[in-house]
Amino acid sequence: MRIIVTGGAGFIGSHIVDAYIARRHQVFIIDNLSTGDRRNLNPQAVFHPMDILDPALPVLLAEISPDVINHHAAQMDVRRSVADPQLDARINILGLIHLLEGCKHLCVKKVIYASSGGAIYGEQETFPAPERHPKRPLSPYGASKLAGERYLNYYQAAFGMPSVSLRYANVYGPRQRSDGEAGVVAIFIHHLLEGRSPTINGDGKQTRDYVYVGDVVAANLSVLESPCTGALNIGTGRETDVAALFGLLREKMGSEVTAIYGPAKAGEQRRSSLDIARAREKLGWSSQTTLSEGLEKTIEYYRRSRME
C-alpha cells in the first residue's frame, strides 16, 4: 500500500515507518522536523519536509494518492498546551482538518489517528478505563485530541473515509526525546546517565500506563489488516506511579541519584490506565513487552547512543 505517515521523523512515527517498510509498503513521510529528527528517517521512505498546515499540502496529497494516512504529527506536550492553548489547537485541530480536507476526495481507504487515552478521559472513574468511559479532558491537549476524534467521525460519515483512533497510553522506548514530549522515561534515563537529579512533579504517586513503543507499532500494523473503525485503547491496563518508575530505573542502571520533588503541574490527571479488551477483540492485539523488559531495552538504547 501507499502510506503517508505524518510525523514520520518523530519518536513513534519513525518506528511505524520502519515497520511498514519492512513489510514492503511504500511509505511517504510528511514532517516539518519541529520535534522530529532527521536521524530517525528511514532512507527507503520518501521524505517531504512540510508542515501539515502548509497550503501546498493538498497538492502533495493528490500527487501521492495514498491508500492510508497514519497521522502522528501533533503538538503532544500537555504542559505546552496549558501554556499556549491556541498553538495546541492550531496544530492538533486545524492541522488535522487541513489534512482531512486534502484527502476527502482521494479514495483514502483508512486514516489511522494517534489519539490519547490518558488525556482524553481525564480523572478516571474506573480502572482500567474502557473506550466508553466519560471523556473529561483536563488539558487543552486532551481536548484537542478528543476534538480530532469527533472530526474523524464526521469525515467518515460525510465522505466515506474510514478511520481508527488509537488512544495511546504513555508510550516510551528508543528515540523518545528527553527534552520534551512528556517522555518521563527518557527524561529520567537521561538524568541518571549524567548523574543529575530529575524533578518529580507533585508527590510522585500519580500513576500512568506505560506501553512500549514496539507494542504500539504492532497495533499500527494490525490496524492495516482490520476492518475495524472507531476508538481503540492501546496500553497495558496496569498502573505504575512515577516514584516507583524512577526507583525501577535507578535499580536497573545501578545509580544512587535521588529525585527532587517539585509542585504538581496543572492539567495532569492523578491516575491513568487503559482497558485494552476492545483492541484484543478487534485486532487480536495486546501488549507483549513487560515494563521491566521495555525499560531494559530503552536504557540500552540510550547508553549505546551516548557512545556513538
Strand order, largest beta sheet:
3-2-1-4-5-6-11
The count of DSSP E runs of length 2 or more, i.e. the number of strands, is 13
Instruction: Classify the oligomer.
Output: single chain
Query: What series of H and E elements makes up the topology?
Result: EHEEHEHHEHHEEHEEEHEEHEHH
CATH third-level topology of the largest domain: Rossmann fold
Q: Pick out the low-confidence regions.
A: none
* CATH H-level homologous superfamily name of the largest domain: NAD(P)-binding Rossmann-like Domain
- Which range best describes the helical content: under 10%, 10-25%, 25-40%, 40-55%, 55-70% or over 70%? 40-55%
Shape: globular
The assigned CATH architecture of the largest domain is 3-Layer(aba) Sandwich
The top-level CATH class of the largest domain is Alpha Beta
Radius of gyration based on Cα positions: 19 Å
**For the terminal residues, how far apart are their CA atoms?**
35 Å
> pLDDT average, as an integer?
96
Number of helices: 11
Total domain modules? 2
Q: Tell me the structural class.
A: alpha/beta
Largest sheet features? 7 strands, parallel
Strand proportion, as a percent range, falls in 15-25%
Topology record:
Layout: E1 2-6, H1 11-22, E2 26-30, E3 46-48, H2 57-64, E4 68-71, H3 78-83, H4 85-103, E5 110-116, H5 117-121, H6 140-159, E6 163-168, E7 170-172, H7 184-194, E8 199-201, E9 207-208, E10 210-212, H8 213-224, E11 230-234, E12 240-241, H9 242-253, E13 260-262, H10 277-283, H11 291-307
Parallel strand pairs: 1-2, 1-4, 2-3, 4-5, 5-6, 6-11, 7-10, 8-13
Antiparallel strand pairs: 9-12
